[in-house]
Amino acid sequence: MSTIVSPSLLAADFANLQQDVELVNESAAEWVHIDIMDGVFVPNISFGIPVCHAINRHAKVIQDVHLMIENPGRYVEDFRKAGADYITVHYEACRHLHRDIQLIHSTGAKAGVALNPHTPVEVLTEVIADLDLVLLMSVNPGFGGQKLIPGIYDKVKRLKALIEKSGSKALIEVDGGVNAESAPKLVEAGVDALVAGSYVFGSDDPKETIASLSQL
């Protein structure tokens, strides 16, 4: 079974976004990762709903939308209409997490929950059976190009055990510091999907880099 690769457009050329989306289409990537930042939940601002609509016009792969925003439930339906296939909200940003998961499912999208590096996987015990995806941040969210926090490997293993114990079908995704050194260790620990931004778009041959990750 190949590893799902979700190239992060946060590291793409914003002036040539269509070109980089088409590059992803032509690669071995099954998903494309779209980071939404509001400058409040994280100290940066990135894409919004109009850009997601624009990406949707060109993307032929699954659109993996990561909402790094406060009160994400307000915008779930809008992002679904903009083309999101997976909508991932942060545990730390949701006052009523179960309600937000239900809302995502009601739109027909797959529901994911992201955890910041300091948040233990055990907080998902009551909702893990309802999730399609858990995104573990292996860096502090908000900026690309950061180094992976080493504790992620054990965290993946703990999450894998929680998923198996609950009978959940949730996939495990990791975002941050994915490269040639860390990716094999992450997959060995139990990761199903790798988000890679700088490592892909900063490489000499992005398609080959994606292919190498997918073959892990």
TrEMBL record:
Gene3D superfamilies noted in UniProt: Aldolase class I
Domain of life assignment: Bacteria
Residues that hold a divalent metal cation according to the record: 33, 35, 66, 175
UniProt-recorded name of the protein: Ribulose-phosphate 3-epimerase
Record EC number: 5.1.3.1
Family: Belongs to the ribulose-phosphate 3-epimerase family.
Gene behind the chain: rpe
Catalytic activity: D-ribulose 5-phosphate = D-xylulose 5-phosphate
Keywords, ordered alphabetically: Carbohydrate metabolism, Isomerase, Metal-binding
Species in which this protein is naturally found: Persicobacter psychrovividus
UniProt cofactor note: Binds 1 divalent metal cation per subunit.
